[in-house]
Amino acid sequence: MQDPEKKFQEKIDNEIKIEPKDWMPEAYRKNNIRQISQHAHSEIVGMLPEGNWITRAPTLKRKAILLAKVQDEAGHGLYLYCAAETLGTTREEMINDLHSGKAKYSSIFNYPTLTWADIGTIGWLVDGAAIINQVMLTRTSYGPYARAMVRICKEESFHQRQGFEILLTLSRGSKEQKEMCQDAINRWWWPSLMMFGPHDKDSTHSDQSLKWKIKRKTNDELRQNFVDMCAEQVKILGMTIPDPDLEWNAQTNHYDFGEINWEEFWNVVRGNGPCNKERLEARKKAWKEGEWVREAASAYFEKRKTKSAFSKY
Ligand code: BYC
Asked: From ligand 1's centre to the CA of 185, what distance in Å?
């Protein structure tokens, strides 16, 4: 009989997706649960900074678009929780880990949304960074995660365009609107670069994730793709990126850019960013207040099960 680990690696090498009932190394299962649940939490916590602006969006049209975007994010979180559940964890375990601080979510959602331009900037930069990362994840080796990513990426690219369009409108507006636009870009630029995680040399999971094709590119490679994309797009806005070291390098065919403040990154990841406490409190409150809905849904499910069992006779 063939060694299961060898068979598993052969599948990965031959681009055959790993499915829930397939044999997999325990570390592969755990690494996927970690990443997928962290991703799901990011979608759900990511609804909070934008949700803050639903009642204050400047027009009815903007309000409807923002509402739809935030609802999409709830949907993304749900597909991802379901994908993680296929690996043997439960929704309850994942939520408990988020609430206890054991599970992480993206550092970016611990920054405040101070003006309407922040909503445009989140769409352009945060969703932009998410797409660069997630397009690669449509080819991740775990089947349910890869399939969830295909759908999420389609919606995400619409999100990015709507964000850019908000900024384009502001960048062509009054002096105050232009200043608001530049100020939001200044505040969100560096935290957006941090979304890709630590430098490759400091990444804990990269080697294993690359070997198992959970990740296809490294943190630094994806970050570079993002910088190259934004450095061009910002010209259309007539705005600037707050980095004096940002410069085209004809030798590497990429933009050079300045050093990230890693102390700030780890501080936010460890729970001490500007909004960490507020975000977790909001999630805990929502979970508690939704208890009766979960109970009612379970009771309805049980009732339907009993009914259909009897309807056979
Ligand atoms: N924030 O070994 P590493 C979105 C942690 S977009 C917090 O390189 P890995 C959305 C990392 O977990 C955002 N923690 O890790 C957009 C690890 O700690 P643990 C969500 C971070 O996994 C708009 C340690 O640092 N996207 O959803 O190989 C609106 C060492 O890192 C961060 C995803 O989650 C960070 N930025 O690479 C609404 C994409 N970076 O776990 C929603 C899927 C690193 O050992 N995830 N850490 O305690 C990934 O692609 C990878 O997990 C990462 C990190 C690139 C993020």
From this structure: 22
**Is the Cβ–Cβ distance between 37 and 81 less than 8 Å?**
yes
From the CA of 105, give the closest atom in ligand 1: 7
**pLDDT per residue as tens digits for the range 65-109:** 999 999 999 999 999 999 999 999 999 999 999 999 999 999 999
CA atoms 140, 133, 206, 149: torsion sign: negative
Res 313: pLDDT = 63
**Pocket of ligand 1 contains residue 156 by CB under 6 Å:** no
Q: How many CB atoms lie within 10 A of CB 144?
A: 22
- pTM, to two decimals: 0.95
* Structure tokens belonging to residue 36: 């997928």
For ligand 1, is residue 140 a contact (CB within 6 Å)? no
Asked if residue 31 has its Cβ within 6 Å of ligand 1, the reply is no
Ligand 1 neighbour 97 (Cβ under 6 A): no
The answer, yes or no, to whether residue 1 has pLDDT greater than 70, is: no
Q: Please state the atom number of ligand 1 nearest to the C-alpha of residue 107.
A: 1
Tell me the Cα Rg of the chain: 21
State pLDDT tens for residues 121-150.
Answer: 999 999 999 999 999 999 999 999 999 999
For ligand 1, atom 50, name the residue with the nearest CA.
133
293 Cα to the center of ligand 1, angstroms: 30
